[in-house]
Amino acid sequence: MSTRKFNFSDKVLEHLNFKMLYIHHIKCEGKWDDQSHSHNFTQIFFFADGKGSLLLDGTTFPVKAGCLVIVNPHIPHMIQSDPKFHLEYFCFAIEDLAFVFNTEPINRGYGIYNLSKNRQNYLFLLDMVLSEAEKQAPGWELVCKDMAEILINDLVVNQNLGLRSRDDPGISKECSIAKSYIDSHYMDPITLEQLSEVTHMSKYYLIHSFNKFLGESPMNYLQRKRIQTAEHLLSTSNYSVSTVATNVGFSSQSYFAQVFKRFTGFTPAQFRKKSQAKEVRP
Would 2 be classed as within a structural domain? Predict the structure, then answer.
């Protein structure tokens, strides 16, 4: 005879306080592009099959089967399919709860995880939620919420995540406006005075608020956004360094090179050479 026994503590465990809004199961064939958008609630995407890409806050990430993506409120995102592959994914939305990404030096507002080893477990759970939602038997919403809570708790434990309720200080509306403005106009000359006018906040309070919610000043976020875009252009295009500098909002090539090295540790030319070497490596 073989037995296993595990004792639990007498600690009272509380359920998570959130509201399920919807679950969505999508299958795409051929080329299909979403529109960039954001929500005032949290979304969790799980990619069941195929390949595609996800544009998150201005940066494109490849996605494939087993990839799970968390998108907190107010983060612009867009799903893009690959014409060579089909794409199948689940998306469920929750209100009153957001994630804290403890492993990130700056809380970006989204997280991407490779869960291919546990793909079948997640598929089973999401298929169960979808099945209960489809049948809508008495108590189905509570059953769906409980299964979603299992998934969320698994992510918290195994991916070193935190949770934040709606009552906790997430990104403010003003910071979200400033961030969205920078994301859309980073290639143009942007000053702190402009951001102050757009958000109707004083420059001092804008800097303080941005640092509080995003971990850096508005102007540093602008520079980082420009450098991230420059990295993409240097890796994927034949544009000259001066053209890349102009396209991402720098009027001076020498200043662009200085800022680029401060963020990446490389000059633009060194970064391009390094990226090209990776592409030709067998």
Answer: no
Cα–Cα dist 210/172, whole Å: 9
Task: Name the domain count of the chain.
Answer: 2
3-state helix, strand, coil in the chain (%, to 5): 45, 25, 35
pLDDT in tens, 22-72: 999 998 876 666 677 778 789 999 999 998 888 887 778 999 999 999 998
For residue 5 the two structure tokens come to: 């026994």
Phi-psi region of 168 (alpha: psi -120 to 50; beta: other; left: phi over 0): beta
Q: What domain range is 146 assigned to?
A: 19-165
- Looking at the structure, do residues 35 and 89 belong to the same domain, yes or no? yes
If you ran DSSP here, which 8-state letter would residue 118 be given?
G
- Indicate the DSSP class of residue 139: T
pTM: 0.62
How far is Cα 195 from Cα 202, in angstroms, rounded to an integer? Answer: 9
> What CATH number corresponds to the domain at position 180?
1.10.10.60
Token reading at 88: 């199948």
